[in-house]
Specification:
The protein has helices at 4-20, 24-34, 37-54, 59-66, 70-81, 87-95, 100-103. By secondary structure, the chain is an all-alpha fold. The protein starts with a helix and ends with a helix. The protein is built from 7 helices and no strands.
């Protein structure tokens, strides 16, 4: 069984690989090689849910728009609003002015 630090090293190396990519096409083809179609769909759905939550859409409206389960929507909301990592917030802040209201809370 691999040690915890080895697993962390693998994750850091993966993150660095993403940083080496320069275009959307580069990222896309890397993700197509790296992920199963289901995994990539799940990632894309979580990101869509994140953006809709930041636009103050209700869980039910998000469910109707995306077809994503209320459990997944709740998990994304929890990570967006209260988990310490802040990854979703970082990307939202970098990408869109329309999410500013979310960050004023």
């Amino acid at each position: 069984m691999a040690s915890k630090s080895f697993k962390s090293d693998l994750v850091v190396d993966l993150c660095e690989a993403f940083l080496d990519l320069e275009t959307v096409e580069d990222v896309y083809v890397f993700l197509m090689d790296l992920c199963t179609p289901k995994e990539l769909k799940d990632f894309a759905e979580r990101w869509a849910v994140c953006q809709l939550i930041a636009q103050n859409k209700t869980y039910r409206a998000i469910r109707a728009e995306t077809g994503v389960s209320l459990t997944t929507i709740g998990r994304v909301a929890r990570f967006l609003q209260s988990e310490p990592y802040g990854g979703y917030k970082r990307v939202l802040k970098k990408r869109e002015k329309k999410y500013e209201k979310f960050f004023e809370k």
